[in-house]
Design goal:
InterPro entries: D-amino_acid_oxidase_CS, DAO, FAD-dep_OxRdtase. The chain is of the alpha/beta class. Helix content is 29%, strand content 29%. The protein binds flavin-adenine dinucleotide.
């Protein structure tokens, strides 16, 4: 994508946007501050993690000049493939359980606040309720991370267990949030530019040393790209495939055994899915597509008449734990501080705002230690 054209388009849309007051980051200095730009921070990566981190930096570091640099944007990122339901997997992990829980509750607050603003529709954020069913194990329908975070998480009743065909023994009903990146990423880009940020479309970075001397701190939100950029062998792709269909009558999300899910969104209903560990195959596989369709139609037979809107594949950047830490990279100019924020696996939309907040704290620490260099 040509980012010059894209930025121009985004700015035009911003000027025409009349559905609500501009969404300004809030912070100690109040909204829309003058930027004195005496610090330069570069976020590498324009997926949901990079853009959310960039907005959080603008909100919290009022005298920072923030740039987002990436080789791929919007529909070319993994984030674009996600249905975007706020539902961390129970195996999702930060460095400690306490920190992980804080990321998740901070993230929920961010999405919940955004959904209450006039920007919610344009940002692709809304409330969503759904069921998770299993015929295998009661643990599958529980989620220790969000049972106390989302407004409703309860056991499904007997009549509810019979809502969908299948011998469902266990089930839960929950109300959570949907953040659809197809809408959120353009919205976040528009906000970022409006707040004075810069977007740079670059070739894929081979080393952080290429940014030496230009920025005080670099934040690494490169998702799976960090595997090569940081020689990180702990980072593994988990391939996922989805089919989007037109089925406006589906208003509730459903999860079932064997990675089966039906998630309504703003632009269609997402049918999934699969998890292929350590697979780099980005091609749509017709066998996966057929299996997804069969499992989803068994769960909701009305989907049989739903036309396909698109099929897509994404490689989830899985790392245990997510990497959120400062690294001092030796350079010709002494050292460059890099804050890593990647490895969110299948839960990057859910958790991006929580890890973004943590990353901003690490950027503050990095800037303080820079001044002591
Ligand atoms: C099928 C599927 C369904 C999903 N459903 C959900 C869901 O319902 N809920 C949920 O929370 N999550 C879901 N996910 C997971 C979610 O999509 C990911 O966790 C998230 O997109 C990761 O975001 P990211 O910003 O880290 O990476 P990406 O979106 O991949 O962005 C990485 C960015 O870094 C840039 N980059 C990488 N390397 C370099 C380099 N060397 N130089 C310059 N730029 C670089 C890229 O160009 C890109 O801009 C799903 C994923 C898949 C595949």
């Amino acid at each position: 994508m040509d980012m010059n054209t894209e930025s121009a388009r985004i700015c035009t849309v911003a000027a025409e946007h009349t559905t609500g007051p501009p969404y300004r980051p809030t912070g100690p200095d109040g909204p829309n501050p003058e930027r004195t730009s005496n610090m330069n921070v570069c976020v590498v990566g324009a997926g949901v993690v990079g853009l959310t981190t960039a907005l959080e930096l603008q909100s919290e570091l009022r005298n920072a000049n923030v740039t987002v640099l990436a080789d791929r944007f919007e529909q070319d990122t993994c984030s674009d493939v996600a249905a975007g339901l706020f539902r961390p997997g129970t195996s999702f992990s930060g460095p400690t359980e306490e920190i992980t829980r804080k990321w998740i509750s901070d993230a929920y607050s961010y999405w919940d606040e955004l959904r209450k603003t006039a920007h919610s529709v344009k940002a692709g954020v809304c409330q969503m309720s759904g069921y998770i069913f299993s015929s295998r194990d009661p643990a599958i329908v529980r989620n220790h991370y969000i049972e106390k975070v989302v407004p409703v998480y309860r056991a499904a009743t007997e009549p509810e267990l019979r809502l969908c065909p299948g011998e469902w023994k266990y089930g839960s009903f929950f109300t959570t949030i949907l953040a659809e990146c197809r809408l959120y990423q353009p919205w976040a880009t528009e906000r970022f530019l409006e707040n004075g940020g810069q977007i740079v479309k670059a070739d894929s970075l081979n080393s952080f040393r290429e940014l030496d001397g230009r920025y005080d701190v670099v934040v690494n939100c490169t998702g799976l790209g960090a595997k090569r950029l940081c020689s990180d062998h702990k980072l593994v792709p988990i391939r996922g495939q989805i089919t989007k269909v037109r089925a406006p009558w589906v208003k509730t999300a459903f999860y079932a055994d064997f990675d089966t899910y039906v998630i309504p969104g703003f632009e269609g209903v997402t049918l999934g899915g699969c998890r292929n560990y350590d697979s780099y195959n980005t091609d749509v596989c017709r066998h996966d597509a057929a299996a997804i369709r069969e499992r989803c139609e068994a769960l909701l037979p009305s989907l049989k008449s739903a036309p396909v809107l698109r099929e897509a594949v994404g490689l989830r950047p899985h790392r245990d734990p997510v990497r959120l830490e400062i690294e001092l990279v030796a350079t010709a100019n002494k050292a460059l501080r890099v804050v890593h924020n990647y490895g969110h696996g299948g839960y990057g939309v859910t958790t991006a705002p929580g890890t973004a907040k943590h990353a901003v704290q690490l950027v503050r620490d990095a800037l303080k230690s820079n001044s002591k260099l």
